[in-house]
Structures are given as C-alpha cells and as structure tokens.
Design brief:
3-stranded antiparallel β-sheet, mainly beta, elongated, binds zinc ion, 3 strands, about 30% strand, single chain
C-alpha cells in the first residue's frame, strides 16, 4: 500500500553558524543534534574556534510548476 503524495512540501532545515570574531555567517544543512547557541565548527574565514550556531530554520524550496 502506498501513501499518496500530497502537494504538501516539507521545508528544508538549515543551520546558520556565525563567528563572533569576524562576523561571518555560514549556512549548512541541519544535522541531528544541532541547536541554537551550540558551539559550531571552526570558522572557515578566520579559523576562530568560537563559532556558534546562531539560528536553525526551515525554508521551503521554491515552488515548482507543472507543465
Ligand atoms: Zn571568523
């Protein structure tokens, strides 16, 4: 038995990391265990190890139109 796919589109979850040292923000796909203010990875811009997750949010993909 199949579930019929409705038109409902699930939002894609993104995690935003920000670096307090240089102010750079980067966005990546959400991973399990991510939460706001969690220490994040090393900054790609200035190599500061003090980056944190500043936001987690869902975003709907752009709507695709049927032909
Ligand atoms: Zn930085």
């Amino acid at each position: 038995m199949f579930f019929r796919k409705k038109k409902e589109v699930k939002p894609e979850i993104f995690t935003e990391e920000s670096c307090p040292a240089c102010g750079v923000k980067s966005r990546r796909k959400f991973e399990d265990g991510d939460y706001v203010f969690k220490p994040a990875t090393v900054c790609k811009n200035c190599s500061s190890p003090n980056t944190i997750i500043s936001a987690v949010y869902g975003e709907y993909p752009p709507e695709t139109h049927k032909n």
